[in-house]
Amino acid sequence: MIPLGSCTMKLNATIEMLAISWPEIAGIHPFVPLEQAQGYQQIFSDLEQWLSDITGFHSVSLQPNAGAQGEYAGLLVIRQYLESRGENQRRICIIPQSAHGTNPASAVMAGMDVVGVRCDDQGNIDFEDLKAKVEQHADALAALMITYPSTHGVFEEGVRAICDLIHQQGGQVYLDGANMNAQVGVCRPGDYGADVCHLNLHKTFCIPHGGGGPGVGPIAVASHLTPFLPGHSVIPLPGEDRVGPVAAAPWGSASIVTISWVYIRAMGAQGLRKATQVAILNANYIANRLDPFFPVLYRGKNKMVAHECIIDLRQFKKVTVEDVAKRLMDYGFHAPTVSWPVAGTMMIEPTESECMAEIDRFCEAMIQIHAEIKAVEEGSIDSKDNLLKNAPHTADSVAVEHWSHPYSRMDAGFPLESQQEHKFWPRVGRIDNVYGDRNPVCSCAGMEAFMSNLSEK
Domain 14-265 adopts which CATH fold? Predict the structure, then answer.
C-alpha cells in the first residue's frame, strides 16, 4: 500500500501493461504516415470518445504529456478562445490558496496574472472572497482554476454556484482533474459547469507513475473550446484556430495510452463507477478509524470525506510528522503525503485497489504509532532516544551485538506480530534531511576519471 494523498497510487494490472511490449505498439515512430498507423488511430478515437463520455465534454486532446502540461494546454485554449472574441484584455486567472502548486505556474506560463482566493475553515473556497475578486477584476477575468473534490479532500457543495459566478463575468472555468478518481461514473465536470479539465491517465486511469513517469495529461473541453485544441506542425490536425503544440509528438506518449484503453474497456461503465465508490468508501473508513487518534482536518457538511483524508498531527509537541512518516517504514508502509496541503499533517489516499486486510493493517500501524507518540509526550520514554526519533530501523541496526536503546529490538524491527512472518526491511536508516538539503554531494565520477580516459585514448 502506497497511501500518498493526491497521487492515486492504484493497481497497475498486468493485463493493462501487456500491449506496450508488443512491437506493433512500441515500434512505431510518432511521425509515421497516418495510413500506416490505423490501429493507433482507432485506439485514439476510442479513448477520446470514452474520456469525453466520462467527463461530459465535447472533445479531447491526448497530446499533453503530464497533468501540468495539460493545465498549460487548457489555459492556452482558454486564452486563444478569448482572443478570438476580441477579449485580449482578459489575463486574470483566479486560483484558490489550496490549489496544487502547478496551477499558478501553468497560469504564468500561459501569460496570465494570478490572483489568489482564500479558503474557509472547512477547506472550501471562500465564496465571499471569490465574489470580491471577481467583481474587482470583472473585465480582465480570464479563468478560475479549481480542483474538485478540493485539495483538502472535500466535495465542495457550492461548485455549481462558483462556476456560474465566473461565467456571469465572461470567464472560463478550468478544472484540475487531479482528483478525478472520486468522480468517474459518479459525476461529470462538464455537467456542473467546468469548461475544460485535464485528466491524469497516469493516476485515475492506471498508467504507472512511481519514479517520475511517464505521464499522460489529456485535456477535455466544451464544444466552444474544441476549435482551439493543440495542433501539430509535422502531423497536421484539422482546424485553423488551434494553439501550437504543447508536446513533441501529436498524440503525446502514445504507446502508454494503451494501458488506459485496456483499463476502461475491461472495467466498463459499471466497473468504473464501482471503483470510484470503493475509493471513497476506503478513504472514509480510514478517516473514521483514525479520527479518535489523529483528528481528520476537513470533512464535508455530511461529515464525510471524498477519496482522501487529511489527518492532523500538529497537537504533538515532541514528535513531528516526519518522525511518524519514517516510523511507518518499520511497519512496512510508504508514508502518506506529508505536510501538504497543510503543514504538520498527512494526506492519505488508499484508492480502490487496497483490500480490507491491507487497510486494516495500515490503520493498526497508525494506531500503534499513536501509542508510541503518547509514551514520548507523557515522558515515559526518552524524548530523543525513542522508536520514532530513530526510525527507520534497518536489519543491520537491529542485529548489532550491543543494543543501547531504551526499547527492545523487537519493538524496533517487528512492531506488529504479523511482521515476524513477513517483514519488508528499510535499506537506509535515519538521515538528517536538513543537513542533506544544505550540503548536496555529487555521486557521479569526478572530472579526473574522464580526464584519465581521454589521456589513455
Answer: Aspartate Aminotransferase; domain 2 (3.40.640)
